[in-house]
Amino acid sequence: MAVAGGRRLTTHLLDQLRAAGAREVVSVTSLVHLAELARSTREPVLLVGDDVVAHTAVLRHVATVPGTASVALVLTDEPDAGPRATVIEDRGQVVAAGLEGITRLDGAASDPIGVFGAVLRVGPADLPALAESALAEAGRDEAAEAGPDRAVPPLDRLLTRLTARPTMILAHRARLLVARRVTSQPAADAAARTVAAVDSDRAELRLAVKERDDLFTTYAVSTWSPYVTRLAARLGLSPTGVTVLSIVFAAGAAALFAFGGNRIALVAGALLLYLGFVLDCVDGQLARYTRNFSAWGGWLDTMADRAKEYLVYAGLAVGAERAGLGNGWALAIAAILLQTVRHMTDTWYGALHDEAARRPKPAAAGGLGARLSQASTRVQADTGSVSYWLKRTVVFPIGERWALIALTVALFNPLVSLIAVLVWGGLAAAYTLALRTLRSASMRVPVLSTVDAVLHRDDGLLARPLGRFTARLPVPALPAAVLAGLAALGLLGAAVFGGPARWTVLPVALVVLLAALPSARPHAGALDWLVPAALRAAEYLFVVAVGLVGDVPPPLTFALLFALAMHHYDLTARLEKRAAAPPLHTLNLGWDGRVVVLAAGTALGAATTVVGVLAGLLFLIFVLSAVIGWTSTGNRPGRTRGGDIDVIPALATVGRATEERSR
């Protein structure tokens, strides 16, 4: 087949791969050859079938999806019929693929929702599986020269083998760009005309906007932020540079909020906060538009989002105090505690849901939780409906939080803003926790058993040996963590209403430390994904209680919670990348060590000193860990972008035609 100008399609594809940034382009001559290539490299491999007509940007996008996971192009509008692998997608993952009917890993048959687009990036971790699958298919071809699968392109057969293994393959869609698989010259001509009719740059700019975002972001930011994104690209700004600008804007807003009763300052702060949020969206859009991704930039963006929000809480607290409106610091402390624990549940529920999508269980087929999951899926599929937007808004995402803060502080005052954040945040927390608990009970997926549970529990030098020593005791992890939280909450209540003696923190600390007993036990319960969040709640409540019992200045208590939050967000950011513990991690003492230090300092009458030193120590360790981690060998802030031959997948293959010519 040929494309525009009479060039052979295979030649055109090879040129496109070079234009997309591939350092080395290889036309594979057999599946055995492919297996040899997979075994000879440690870099991602981009595989492209010889029947693909697409924008070059489609190939570049699949090659540069952030992270190291494998990625498959999925088509939903495939007009040219032919033997194809059909796929099932769930939460952005290809969870099953088949040449006829599809059977998931749990043995259940499902209806396909897309067709494989014959573009597959195989991540480094999956290269051994690719080599084994290629050799297996090669042996199958030799054993049976004829058969129903012989007409199926080899890349489709390889995908079905890979999805039958416990591998994570992300699904990528062309969306506004064009990708087609063709089996005839008329189909190739039609596909080429469709490609030519679409402005690739304009489509890429729109694709830089998240496909599904929150209500405020969709209609108040993304309607015009792409123009800022294009301007930033033309000015040569990096996504990290835009992130830094957004931090400056948020810090300026927090400083203006601290003026309290000055209406001009409050309105100006609200405007700065809105513009800072726009820049917060632009940094991600710029990364997607320029295909300029880096692990450092992703980490910084995650940390900056939380730091900016909590800095704004501090500014609102100062403003409320200066205006004589009430105890703003108490509300800011409650807000940072609530929001951090909520984020912990969000992170772990997301990890649970991803694991359930990849490894569904037969037991998840019935029950109230399963019905809630089905209802949620239906609502999410009804994009743009009232129920869709209600579902996305009620959980109080970041866009709505920043919009609420900006609006209430501009119209009213900082105290009203903090109260509004707490009320909506509390309702959202209750709603999401209730529904997710029911849904996860039906999933029955032990997500904590797939990671280093001790690391993500944030156990320290006391909890680790104690957990190993008591590993045989039948102490379940979640009840122990909940008990710790209730004990800390009881101490906090006593401090608010009764002013207990300093020594009372010691027996409460002992009860909190009981959560260390199941540290080494398997966290395989259906609800054990809540353990990290429960431990965060227990520790943060204990910090607040110590602040009250020990007469610690509220800004100092807030500073310690801020430092703890940054430490724990660092852990969750590493969870998403399955990365190792941060450098200097043991110096953080673990949640158990910090509880012991706080309890001892409070009992000795030195709570203020201990809280201040601990906050400073945690901030210092956080900064040093970031510097060491991102400047050490193999962790430098590198980039992944189209056209950078040092980091784009090193190999590319064009499938069936060259393979058949070798026979």
From TrEMBL:
Q: Does the keyword Transmembrane apply?
A: yes
State the UniProt keywords alphabetically.
Membrane, Transferase, Transmembrane, Transmembrane helix
The answer to whether keyword Hydrolase applies is: no
| DUF5941 domain mapped to chain residues | 458-635
Tell me the leader sequence span. Answer: none
Q: Which Gene3D superfamilies match?
A: 1.20.120.1760
The protein's matches in InterPro entries, at most eight in alphabetical order, are given as: CDP-OH_P_trans (IPR000462), CDP-OH_PTrfase_TM_dom (IPR043130), CDP_ALCOHOL_P_TRANSF_CS (IPR048254), DUF5941 (IPR045985)
Top-rank taxon: Bacteria
* TM region(s), chain numbering: 235-258, 264-282, 402-434, 477-496, 503-520, 540-565, 610-631
Give the protein family.
Answer: Belongs to the CDP-alcohol phosphatidyltransferase class-I family.
Protein name (record): DUF5941 domain-containing protein
Organism classification, top ranks? Answer: Bacteria, Bacillati, Actinomycetota, Actinomycetes, Micromonosporales
